[in-house]
Amino acid sequence: MRRLDARNLPCERCAPKRLRVPMACPLRGEAFMEDAPAVEVHGLSRRYGELLALDRLDLSIGAGELFGLLGSNGAGKTTTLKILTTLLLPSAGTAWVAGFDVVHAPREVRRRIGYVPQLVSADAMLTGRENLVLSARLHGLRRAERESRIAEALQLMDLTSVAGALVRSYSGGMIRRLEIAQAMLHRPQVLFLDEPTVGLDPVARHVVWDRLRELRVQFGTSILLTTHDMEEADVLCSRIAILHRGRVTVQGVPAELKAHTGSEATLDDVFIQATGAVIDRGAYRDVARTRRTAQRLG
Fold first, then answer.
1. Contact of 196 with 116, CB cutoff 8 Å
2. Looking at domain 1-112+189-252, which CATH architecture does it have?
3. Domain residues of the chain, as ranges?
4. What pLDDT, in 10s, does the model give residues 129-178?
5. E strands of the chain, at which residues?
6. Residues 6 or more apart whose Cβ sits within 8 Å of residue 149
7. Residue 276 — pLDDT band, cuts 50, 70, 90?
């Protein structure tokens, strides 16, 4: 267990019963320690005018878990990540990250998370090392610690040999690995990734997967990633949740979800069943099976 700065948080009587987090009551001025899940969400909703992007979302992600949030475009994945990373306020509900409320203690949340957005965030006109130096300074790392962290990050992401090259000369996979390295410099407890391998070729995609696994082993990092890639979710995530129209329709261990769907079911089949994809359902299944057959035959 560890003691966390719990300023601006309610006492235990004010918090959801399922949460077991370190909190302090402002009136009592005392803190106590409890084990906290990496992410705990209850009844989370978000409206954009008449559009309900998130509808009473419930999630619980354990410490050290690699959790996948699946869904088609517009399902609410990015909205969820923006709320959990304090970039967007919820319309209703509560969300706790690393033991802190994203609304009442956003600064404490930001100190304990890393975030890699879907769009490119690395500066193309800087070298890989310069991008890391900039990130380290933004995170307040001291000079001596900064140098060792950067060297370690470059080695972990297999970027040491290109650290002095401009990022505009990097491949897509190299850029993504650099962005993950930037997000991990301050050793966050929770790492959020929005479509981390979108647009990458198969080789680059597998390299990113390997690095994410290494982060979990080396630092015990809890990882929440969004994806619409069923293969990625199947081979990488310990648990998944499928979002459809802002609501979680199913969640669990990929292998168990497939077994429950059918003896030869794939995660594609689980997704179709969970989202109620009845329109063009046959075409979707035919395409998915054709692609799997082609992959087996080379």
1. yes
2. 3-Layer(aba) Sandwich (3.40)
3. 1-112+189-252, 120-187, 254-298
4. 999 999 999 999 998 899 999 999 999 999 999 999 999 999 999 999 99
5. 23-25, 30-32, 39-48, 51-61, 66-70, 92-97, 100-101, 113-116, 190-194, 222-227, 239-244, 247-252
6. 136, 141, 185
7. confident
